[in-house]
Amino acid sequence: MIIIKTVLCNVFLFLVIGMQAQSGLSMDMEKTMNKMQLEYIQPVEQFPTFIDGGAIKYFNYDFGLEIDGGKMLILVQTRNDDGTYIPQIAVSGLVSTLATNRQEFDIRVMNTNDKYLMETNSDWAIESLFIPKKGMTEYKIAYFKALFKEGVGAVNILYLSNEEIEVFPIVKYSNN
Fold first, then answer.
1. Across the chain, what does the average pLDDT equal?
2. 99-135 burial string, b = 16+ CB within 10 Å, else e?
3. Residue 11, in any domain of the structure
4. Contact assessment for residue 28 and residue 65, using Cβ atoms and an 8 Å cutoff
5. pLDDT score at 176
6. Domain of 56, in residue numbers
7. d(CA 53, CA 165)
8. I need a surface site. Which of 9, 38, 45, 160 has the fewest CB within 10 A?
9. Quick check: is 104 in a domain?
């Protein structure tokens, strides 16, 4: 009887630990979220794989998410607001660096509405759609969302995919 209880207890612990490991945030993600006063918004009907910080050509990121076995890659970069950061200028330069220079492709820039600012608790936000620069990634389409909260900082979110996708917010600033 004691052996059966021990085995059942071990199986239960194995399952609990396994479930936590699958749904747990990466260490880089947790650290960044705390530092930047961010909350994670779970994508509906999607179960991402969390990725630690790293870099792709032209873009260093603090953490990432891989959706549907790599059909979409989401990379998140943050910057603290030190009082000198101007998000409009920084984002313009970053998107210009990430997007292809080929003249037959446009960079589409869209302002966000007040509802999106409220959902993300941001002071400023903007979206962009473009073709990534050759050699940056194997993905064919890039969506870019930038959020800014005065006194906290900026969050740049790069969504990469091979087909058009619905882009959703994955983080929001805490209400603190």
1. 85
2. bbeeeeeebeeeebeeebeeebbbebbbbbbbbbbee
3. no
4. no
5. 64
6. 26-173
7. 23
8. 45
9. yes
